[in-house]
Design goal:
Helices cover 83% and strands 0% of the residues. By secondary structure, it is an all-alpha fold. Helix 5 runs antiparallel to helix 6. It is globular, with a radius of gyration of 16 Å.
């Protein structure tokens, strides 16, 4: 099922690991500002959790000879903690943001856009074993890397404005 996906998986694992390092540096450099702003620690945790999801998913894609249904179950389990972290972040934003509705209107679709392809792709892999599931998971990986770049920007630059 995952034949031909190893280069993609290795590239995304490397990119996500590097980006996770960048986010961790941003957190450590701006820790006082992050701790001072309500909800920003939850956003940082969601960003790190999303990058861990990309690394784990890439690792799962590298397991040779794995049936599609097994891969689907593994991805579905892996996406769970990221969903929890994003949900916590969304709750903090709703409670603590001066522009709570605007923030939610922007962040909720961005979080869903990242995580929904993982979940849908996993379900398709479980139910149908179709390679369409892998393509959706790959879309989730790419969208999560993009979303995590936005979070890294906030944690490094926007926080200091």
């Amino acid at each position: 099922m995952t034949t031909g996906w190893s280069d993609f998986a290795v590239a995304m694992v490397g990119a996500a690991a590097a980006l996770a390092g960048l986010v961790m540096v941003a957190i450590s450099v701006n820790i006082r500002e992050i701790l001072a702003l309500p909800g920003l620690t939850a956003r940082a945790a969601a960003a790190v959790g999303s990058l861990v999801l990309v690394v784990v998913t890439g690792g799962l894609l590298l397991v040779p000879g794995q049936p599609g249904a097994v891969l689907g179950v593994e991805v579905l389990v892996a996406v769970g903690p990221a969903v929890v972290l994003h949900t916590i972040s969304l709750r903090h934003r709703a409670r603590n943001s001066a522009s709570g509705r605007f923030s939610l209107a922007l962040y909720l679709p961005l979080a869903a856009l990242q995580l929904f392809p993982f979940a849908l792709g996993a379900v398709l892999l479980i139910v149908t074993g179709s390679s369409t599931g892998i393509y959706l998971v790959a879309a989730g990986v790419i969208l999560t890397v993009i979303g995590s770049m936005l979070d890294a920007w906030v944690l490094m630059v926007e926080i200091l404005r």
